[in-house]
Amino acid sequence: MSVNPELQGRSYPPTAPYLVGREKVREFARAVFATNPLHHDVEAARAAGYADVVAPPTFPVVVQEHALAQLLADPDGGIDFSRVVHGDQRFSYSRPIVAGDELTATLTVTSVKTLGGHSMVTADALVADAAGEHVVTATSTLVVRGDE
Amino acid sequence: MSTPALSDLTVGDVIAEAEYALSRDSLVRYAGASGDFNPIHYRDDVAASVGLPGVLAHGMLTMGLAVQPVVDWVGDPGRVVDYQVRFTRPVVVDPADGALVNVVAKVGRIDEDAARIDLTVTFNGETVLGKAQAVVRLES
Questions:
Q1: Which helix (H) or strand (E) holds A40?
Q2: How far is CA B116 from CA B3, B8, B55, in A?
Q3: A91 at the B interface (CB within 8 A)?
Q4: How far apart are CA A120 and CA B60, in angstroms?
Q5: What is residue A70's predicted lDDT score, i.e. its pLDDT?
Q6: What is the pLDDT of residue A136?
Q7: What's the pLDDT score for residue A60?
Q8: Is residue A134 very low, low, confident or very high in pLDDT (cuts 50, 70, 90)?
Q9: What is the pLDDT of residues A15-68, one digit of tens each?
Q10: Would you say residue A1 has pLDDT above 70?
């Protein structure tokens, strides 16, 4: 099985809304060694001008994961999950994520390349809030290893 | 704590350094927090069966912790407006001794309203992330 080159340009429907919980932000922050008070202390976050605790920079991976699941499950995508390695990752923000945000992610495959038996699939997950405003774009390149 | 100003920065300045001790517990905690339950991050037998040298830290855990010295320096995680890495080498986490990950953050570029901070992230003396760059919004 190999990656379908026609994946390039394909978009998937927006994911179901993900409600960012205050305890989830704290839990994620502890997991990435993030000790800044704005992740944990609501009063500190409000004093800094935020509505609630602020998510760490890599938190959107939680929402991106739901969007990428659609790509991996695509019946004619040809991506064998057991051969997938994370190649690179980027987050480009319009505004920080805070607890209380309701986020949806819309995934588009921007590029499919084959390089020496491996395939590189790059996809943008556009994360928007309940008002439809852009929050962050999470871009991942997945390397799908070919047969050894 | 006051926010650093662009006018105080010079390209090449080391703005932060930190070391993180990862244990298997760290990986289980990250799996739960992120929802990434790939067993190569907590089961030696599964890691071995797919030809890995051992249980690996999630790349996204390494990415997540590597930006923390920058967040601590700038004081406000909301000022990190862009953050990217390339995953170049795995971090193997020993069941008893864990793994030490070292981060050095330097000023890479200074723009009108932001600074690019370049991260050198090493494990066992080798870099594990490539092109690790965080763009931080700052005032002059």
A1: helix A37-40
A2: 15, 14, 32
A3: yes
A4: 18
A5: 94
A6: 98
A7: 98
A8: very high
A9: 999 999 999 999 999 999 999 999 999 999 999 999 999 999 999 999 999 999
A10: no
Identity of residue B48: A
Query: Which is more confidently placed, B49 or B2?
Result: B49
**A62 touching B (Cβ < 8 Å):** yes
Across the interface, of A57, A88, A95, the residue whose CB is closest to B86 is: A88
A125/B contact by beta carbon, under 8 A: no
CB pairs under 8 A between A and B: 107
**Close Cβ partners of B120 (under 8 Å, ≥ 6 residues apart):** B103, B104, B106, B127, B132
Write down the ipTM of this complex: 0.97
Tokens of A47: 């004093």
CA atoms of A138 and A65, how far apart (whole Å): 10
A82 at interface of B, judged by CB pairs closer than 8 A: yes
Strands (E), B4-112: 14-22, 80-87, 99-110
Claim: this prediction has a pTM higher than 0.90: yes
Which of B20, B41, B67 would best serve as a mutation to test chain A binding (most A beta carbons within 10 A)? B67
Count CB neighbours of A30 within 10 A.
16
What is the phi-psi region of residue A145: left when phi exceeds 0, alpha when psi lies from -120 to 50, beta otherwise? beta
Q: Would you call A135 an interface residue with chain B, using a CB distance cutoff of 8 Å?
A: no
Q: Residue B18 has which token pair?
A: 């930190």
Q: Is the dihedral of CA B72, B74, B75, B81 positive or negative?
A: negative
Decide if A89 and B84 are in contact by the 8 Å CB cutoff: yes
Cβ pair B86:A85 closer than 8 A: no
Residue in chain B closest to A98 (alpha carbons) equals B78
Distance from CA of B66 to the nearest CA of A (A): 9
| CA A132 to chain centroid | 17
